[in-house]
Amino acid sequence: IPGIKFSKCSQTQYQQYLKDQKPACILNNPLPTYFTDYSFCGNKKVDEGEECDCGPVQECTNPCCDAHRCVLKPGFTCVEGECCESCQIKTKGALCRLAKNECDFPEVCTGYSPKCPKDKFQANGFPCKNGEGYCFMGQCPTLDGQCSELFTDGAQDSHSLCYKMNKKGNRFGYCKKRGNTFVPCEEKDLKCGKIFCTGGQRSLPLGEDKTFNFKKQKQNVTIKCKAMFLYNNSRDIGLVNSGTKCGEGMVCSNGECVKIEKAYSSTSCSSQCDDNAVDDHEQGCQCEDGLIIAGWGETLNLTSVSIMAVVLVMVIIGVGLVVLLVRYQKCIKIKQVQNSPREMQGVENKVYLPDEHHTRSESVLTDIHPLQRSTLAMTTEHQNLDVLKLESYLLKRENCSQKEHKVAT
């Protein structure tokens, strides 16, 4: 008889697997582009050109969507989502997702989308659980916490002697696996191989636990070291989780105990938030205590515009100063030409002759309009005639004086 559904046992094991392993590839929602389906109004899927789709008209119960046309009803801005309330998008800053733990951030609505923004976590490597661990992808992994997941809440991390098993390099203790070869742990990496717990009970149906006993002769104490082994060759969940603290400022990464700086990169956010600036797990920035900067992009754009305006004004001022300097130099040159030494000689020299003046006038007339040049030439000629008349008059006067002097004698 072919099976038509999963048995109760299989369903329980599957649910337990999802709870413990949290496989991202199964729990996340696939992109709509992965599905090839005919688009039409009423298929309960918002296709291109649709604002909403609540299914067939007779089945639609959404008060925000017009089931006949798959568009929002007049006056409404959204249909569903964490940031959609009474068919209206919530205001910017409204809380839409609480912080799950100290390694998670609360999310707030953007004011323009009905969906809550992508989940943001505290920066990887941020101290958590009073210094017992460091944040990693929104969780605070510790050895005690992993033991509780593997062997119920009563389990906890076992004695450090148990981790000596990880030097063996076999399925009972190792740090890495290359093909079918188990790579033993180095001394510094012992807490990053198989995890060993004590107490609790087996809670996973996917494998079996094995307990190793170490006896301390002097104290007459038996140490129990319990480890988890899977039935198949899938990923060994009995290895210490990545991001688990293995020393001060050290975390497990790929079976090695390395410094946080090597395991994670960091980004400084102090310049982007007024107070309580912290990095998130994607090397973005978050501002704690609700101090998320409103209009971050707008603020940056305004700042850029202001800077450009200041630079433009400074450039204009600089160009103006250069123009003034050039004009000033031209004025200086013109004055120097007007006050040349040749002209000054004509004023001061007692032997300054009209002929020299006449010569200089001719050189100056080259830059004057022809009509003005002729007028000036006529004026100069009249002046020369007047000089000649004056000389003739003086000569006659002198002759007359001489004659009168002779007559008198």
UniProtKB/TrEMBL annotation:
Domain Peptidase M12B: start-end pairs: 1-30
Membrane topology: Single-pass membrane protein
Subcellular compartments: Membrane
Keyword field: Disulfide bond, Membrane, Transmembrane, Transmembrane helix
UniProt cross-references to InterPro entries, sorted A to Z: ADAM_Cys-rich, Disintegrin_CS, Disintegrin_dom, Disintegrin_dom_sf, Peptidase_M12B
Any one biological process term the GO annotation gives: proteolysis
Disulfide cross-links: 96-116
TM ranges: 307-326
Annotated ranges, domain Disintegrin: 38-124
Gene Ontology CC terms: plasma membrane
UniProt xrefs under Gene3D superfamilies: Disintegrin domain
GO terms for MF: metalloendopeptidase activity
Listed name of the protein: Disintegrin domain-containing protein
Organism, scientific name: Neotoma lepida (Desert woodrat)
